[in-house]
Amino acid sequence: MAEETTILESSEMILNMGPQHPSTHGVLRVKLKLDGEKVLDAECIIGYLHRGMEKIGENRTYPKYAPYLDRMDYVAAVTNNLAFLEAVEKLLGLECPPRAKYARTMLAEFQRIASHLLWLATHALDIGAMTIFLYCFREREEILKLFEEIFGARLTCNAFRVGGLTEDLPAGWLEQAKAFTDIFPSRVDDYEGILTENRIWLQRTKEVGVISAANAIDIGLTGPALRASGVKWDIRKAMPYESYADMDFEVPVGTRGDTYDRYLVRMQEMRQANRIIRQCVEGLPGGDFKAKTPRVIKPPLGEVYHSIEGPKGEIGYYIVSDGSTIPYRVRVRPPSFMNLQALAQLARGHYVADVVALIGTLDIVLGEIDR
Amino acid sequence: MFIFVALLLPVVALLAGRLLRPQMGHDTKLRPYECGVEPETDARERYSVRYYIIAILFVIFDVETIFLFPWAVIYDKLALFGFIEMLVFLGILIFGYIYVWKKGALEWV
Amino acid sequence: MAEAGIALIKIAVVLGFVLNLAALLTWAERKQSAVIQDRIGANRASVFGLRLFGLFHIAADALKMLTKEDHVPQTAEKFIHGAAPFISFFFALMGFAVIPFGDVLRVGGREIPLRILDLNIGILFIFAAIALEIYGSVLAGWSSGSHYATLGGMRGSVQMFSYEIAWGVSLLGIFMVYDSLDLNRVVLRQGDLLWGVLPKWGIVTQPLGFLLFLAAGMAITKRVPFDLPEGESEIIGYFVEYSGMKFGLFFLTDFVLTILISALLATLFFGGYQLPYLEPDGFRFPWGATWSLDHYTVVFLQFVALVLKIVFFCWLLLAVRWTYPRFRYDQLMDLGWKVLFPLAVANVILTGLVLTLIE
């Protein structure tokens, strides 16, 4: 026998998780190298949802490009849209009226809650807790109904226009929004009641996928994933946009940087977002809902980078204008793309089941990763 | 008799299925599930040795528990003597168990 | 001839009960989860506009399974692939042969023992049946030739290994207390009264044993939080390459096993067909009151009692599914080997000590 084998030798199994897999949150493909249940190596393969978003931007006028961006992070269309429009407004040197600013802040926070609810629902489902999934969708449905009333669409709502809102808030909308903020904290208590002190949940999330603060900054994590590692960085506080400077809210921070901390941080963020909405509803100023904008959006020659704090992290747009109605180049900085980079590193040494939990905890949306 | 009925049930169910269902498989449909990409390795390779260690432990401990069954049944008649004797046996079993634990065979590394 | 007829009737009763209950459980699981999760649940299937709370979904499911195309992947070992669901289902059913659903029925001078098989090692028979049942899922995983199925099969086998020991040892206490491996004798002895008041059920004499058996039993039925071999959000499961009726058999096996574990829980820890204070000639309460009943009523009441107990445990096992997340693989092993097994051994020693002290 020329072939030499030891008795205990076993071959590594190469397992493709995705693109058609229930818990890769879209069409992510993770190539795992397994020794039994243990992950020896992981490699993320992306691009299954590539639609050439940035290239499309070079062929559409500024207002016409905005609806495309709803399809990037399709579970947080409002914030996606907002980041782009703010970048364009910055390029134009346009200032929104206060009413528009407050409304935008409020809707962005609604979107944050909706996005976090979807994250919680799917994350818990991946780990096997099914019931919370439908609880989260119940509240998300309320938010989507509010969106539908104001934008005419639920998921990919082309929320705003350059310079403000499309139209004023419909009559009775504020009361509904207020009613939502009244009940929502008790609903978050419900979710926490199911999970926060559940022994199995703790076992599955504590000490799983630990990212140190330094490492998180190196990778380029933003949003809750970064804050769970103990870095207090939130663009809403650091570089306030819209009306965040007027708002009173806290930025929850974790300590250990594991999956459980990321869970806690997001839960707290939902409560804080609720607080912000409350303040917006109560302090909504009157006046115009839209600034005076030129009929044709034609920014001057120049370039701008503007980013806001989306539900998943820093969502930013870099726009180069050549002075025409069409952007010369649009570059997107999607939070999911950066956050996903952590996955391969985190998965190494964990179990197959943890990979699913890690994909969940990073809260990725393939629409904006592949663009 | 029960065996025959129990045998019959799944067989009838499977046969009925065979008679009723359409047959129109084609090659792509019959590829094994690997999330939509070609599997890179054969699924029937050597598995991680961990599985086998657990299996061997199972055999050892299961045989030991089987020894306990007859003892449990006539426990009444054996009284104190039987109890002490079994403590000795259990002691050996527990010793082996602690050894295995300390050796790390129960950890899934 | 009469013997064969009686045996057939008994088989028909037991299998009819088990299969119908299993079918009902598929419906109950949906409806129950719907209630827990704040939604309506299956209610679309209708016959002439009659919906009946979605009960027709059972028939609709069966029809769907039967008429679905059967996929056997190219990489599969064809014969084993076909045999696996059959093995699973067959051995799961076999377990019911020794479950007593009554003591004896006296009809026209003939004594009919109300169980299919009178085995003096009944419980070992069930152990064997359940241990063989797992071959179905292991072979299914292996023969499919798919990585996901293989992982599921391996998980299934190792989970079985880890929990069957704790499962077996947790029952030792019961046999020490009731001196028999024959399930009917265990049930009969549970009819006694402790201190003249308390029924001497297994839950009273072996509370720790009950909890251990329940936990290990859930692991063996592969239900949440122990549903790792399926783990639908991770590895989809050992039956990922199955469709149609073959998948249907796996699906049904799950519920049949749930009923088997419920039946065992009822038989070993909750007095089986025994009702408290019900003697062969009627109720005899500890405070002296009596209520005499004829033989048939007593047998019937006992059968109903067993059915109710089984249904209760089925409900319990189903309800757990919707409240807990899933364990991870190493945590599952830790629980089986490092918690349940030592506790089960401690339970045996404790039981021995108490029994010795009583004498």
Label this structure with key terms.
heterotrimer, A: 371 residues, alpha+beta, Cytochrome-c3 Hydrogenase, chain B, three-stranded antiparallel beta sheet, 14 helices, 8 strands, 48% helix, 13% strand, globular, disordered N terminus, B: 109 residues, mainly alpha, Methane Monooxygenase Hydroxylase, Chain G, domain 1, 67% helix
Describe what you observe in this structure.
- The complex is a heterotrimer of chains A (371), B (109) and C (359).
- With 371 residues, chain A is of the alpha+beta class.
- Chain A contains 14 helices and eight strands.
- Chain A has helices spanning 53-57, 62-69, 77-92, 98-127, 131-151, 173-195, 199-205, 213-219, 224-227, 235-238, 259-283, 335-347, 352-362, 366-370, and strands spanning 13-17, 29-35, 38-45, 160-161, 164-165, 302-309, 314-321, 327-333.
- The longest helix of chain A is centred in the N-terminal third of the chain and has 30 residues, at 98-127.
- Chain B is mainly α and 109 residues long.
- Chain B has a domain at 47-109: Methane Monooxygenase Hydroxylase, Chain G, domain 1 (Up-down Bundle), CATH 1.20.58.
- Chain B has helices at 2-20, 49-73, 75-103.
- In chain B, helix 2 (49-73) packs antiparallel against helix 3 (75-103).
- The longest helix of chain B is centred in the last third of the chain and has 29 residues, at 75-103.
- The two termini of chain B are 47 Å apart.
- With 359 residues, chain C is mostly helical.
- Chain C has one domain.
- In chain C, the strands form three sheets. Chain C has a three-stranded antiparallel beta sheet, with no helix packed on it. In chain C, strands 1-2 form a two-stranded antiparallel ribbon. Chain C has a two-stranded antiparallel sheet with strand order 3-4.
- The model of chain C has no long low-confidence stretch (mean pLDDT 83).
- The interface between B and C is large, with 62 and 77 residues.
